Amino acid sequence: MLLRNHDLALSPFAFAEPAGLMDGCGDVPEAVALAEELRDRALRIQRYLEEMDNRERELQAAEATLRSRLTELKAMKASVRSGEVNRRSTVQNDIDRLVAVYGQMKPAEAAAVLTNLPADFAAEILMRVEPEAGARIIAAVEPNQAAVLTTHMGARSIGSR
């Protein structure tokens, strides 16, 4: 990095044999060998810097890809959350409508239908109807079934604490 940022520092390496440097030294094998070694080093440094530049570009491309993917994932997460909120809202609206229907039914009719539903579902409905309507419906249910429904209602209340 230091050499790359200082182009002047590379100049002696890039041109190990500048004009006049080897004048009068061509017959000195040590000077020729040193000049060749410096040229070879300069070439290795240049290749290394090019490789580092390539890696830096690859890293920048990978980072851009990751940022793009992160943006996509955040958008997907927001979409999923929005869908979940909409789904919950729809389910809640459906439950509210169902509770309203049972709340409007005659207690004996509501009791007859509720006893044929799964006990936990029937208990949930009974927990949500107006207390007076729920009491009339439970009163219309057989005592054994009323005990089961009441147990589920109590378990639901305790579980939500």
Describe this structure in words.
The chain has helices at 2-5, 7-14, 29-104, 107-114, 119-128, 131-140, 143-159. By secondary structure, it is mainly alpha-helical. Helix 2 packs across helix 3 (29-104) and helix 4 crosses helix 6 (131-140). It starts with a helix and ends with a helix.
What key phrases describe this protein's structure?
about 160 residues, mainly alpha, disordered N terminus
Using the CA coordinates, give the radius of gyration.
Answer: 41 Å
Number of helix segments? 7
> Which regions have little confidence, pLDDT < 50, spanning 5+ residues?
1-6, 8-16
Distance linking N and C termini: 62 Å
Level of helix content? over 70%
| Class by SSE composition | mainly alpha
Order of helices and strands: HHHHHHH
Q: Taking all residues together, what is the mean pLDDT?
A: 84
> Strand-residue fraction?
under 5%
- Described by its quaternary structure, the protein is single chain
- Can you summarize the main beta sheet? none
- Quantity of strands, as a count: 0
Shape: rod-shaped
In short:
The chain has seven helices and no strands.
Fold blueprint:
Layout: H1 2-5, H2 7-14, H3 29-104, H4 107-114, H5 119-128, H6 131-140, H7 143-159
Helix pairs in contact: 2-3, 4-6, 5-7
